[in-house]
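Sorry to interrupt, but I need a hand with the structure work. Please put the record directly below this note.
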Amino acid sequence: MDFPSPLTGGTLLRRYKRFLADVRLDDGTIVTAACANTGAMLGLTAEGSRVWLSRSSNPTRKYAHTWELVEIAGLGLVGVNTGSPNRIAREAIAGNLLPELSGYGTLRMEVKYGTNSRIDILLENGNRPPCYVEVKNAHLFRAPGLVEFPDCVTERGTKHLDELARMVERGSRAAMLYLVQAAGPTRLALAADLDPNYFKAFATARRAGVEAYALCCKVTTNAITADRMIPVDGP
């Protein structure tokens, strides 16, 4: 996924109201940027962090800038925009970087299914069952080499696991794809201490036949590109 225009560097002053961040750009200008991330962003919002913003050309947007990257010691660049993983996952599947999800003739995004839900990616081929792929951004780094999900309670995420399990029961394939906008982690685990209900739902979904994959990315100020799969710990 290429950024549509060069990113602008700056220093994070604060993240607040969950969806906003104040940043001092390298030229000294202070701007308020949109923070497209509903999670707690634990460990990613320290004041003084080096960050990069994109800028929209849409004149009607209230906040022209969007927070895209943060630099974390020991990790390098980390993508924080949760609007990016679906695009990155689509490119990875189309490029056969996920062999387990290859061989489908059609890829559709944001398709209605289940109980008032939309699946991130639906893979279809007339000769095999469809595959429902739910993409989640994982960016909790509490131990070297480890990335975890979620970083806070996610009732919506639990609902998605239940929906995927039901699709498997009806004869389809279903998969959780955890997208890691960072290069360093070597495995992914579920943060049971932060959301026990999600952990239980994950275990139930896995027993029902829901697949689970994790994909790390190469991250630069020009692009975020799917790079390699890492194992998913857990039940």
